Amino acid sequence: MNILLVLAHPEAASLNGSLHRFMVERLTSAGHSVRVSDLYAMRWKPALDADDFPARDTAAPFDPVLDSLRAFEGGTQTADIAAEQEKLLWADAVILQFPLWWYSMPAILKGWIERIYAYGFAYGVGEHSDTHWGDRFGEGTLAGKRAMLVVTTGGWASHYAPRGINGPMDDLLFPIHHGILYYPGFDVLPPLVVHRTGKVDAAAYARITGELGERLDTLWTTDPIAFRRQNGGDYEIPALTLREHIAPGRAGFGVHRKNSESETLVFEPGRL
To answer: What sequence ranges are listed for the domain Flavodoxin-like fold (predicted)?
Structure first.
């Protein structure tokens, strides 16, 4: 399989750097083809701006959406953007690896997303009508591919528990899982999260790499997060709100996952 590793950490001698090298070796040894986007080593330009569209009409106001579409369709994107898009199309699976900084991904990784997720490539794809609101959230250019996050935090696991002060990790990662990965079509796998990075000794490192190795070995057999497909019937279109019988009385991120316990049960005569 083809696997793209995207690393967003500025220090090669860090825990993240070590885990990245472990992943490359593990996947390569298993016979997979591996490509790497080490964003800091690449000196990736994080800001989406007019310089990304050298063929744009400079007499007109800069429009990030329309200029992105024109560059993508016209083949005038900058070479770095086109190269990363090609990697995404090549990959069967993508692993984003980063430390959780200020409750999100580092700016350089967010900038990687913003610049390569061009209009016509990652969004603005497919029919928009009263019955089908674009190819997204389970459909799209990257459908059929898998994605997984490898995330490190300095805090304890309990800090990110359902009642932890930082909020549940599932909620913190929802914008990335659902909004960045599931939106253009990825099947999103549960993340691997490493806590208390400042306290990792030899024993902890062995445990972490053991868990990470198992996740890599089962990359194609692990069940993805069961997000609801936008055009699968659970949502009213074009309002894009859940139908009344789906998770009645509930709100929040969790309702966008399929969960039989949260659905309305329809009574059928003759059944207990």
So the answer is: 1-206
Give residue limits of the domains in the chain.
2-226
Counting Cβ atoms within 10 Å, is residue 272 exposed (0-12), middle (13-18) or buried (19+)?
Answer: exposed
Residue 269: predicted pLDDT? 37
Does this model's pTM top 0.90? My answer is yes
* Position 127 pLDDT exceeds 90: yes
At the fourth CATH level, the homologous superfamily of domain 2-226 is Flavodoxin domain (3.40.50.360)
Residue 259 pLDDT = 78
Q: What are phi and psi of 48, to 5 degrees?
A: -80, 120
Among 5, 67, 60, CA closest to 32: 5
Q: With bands split at pLDDT 50, 70 and 90, how would you rate the model's confidence at 272? A: very low
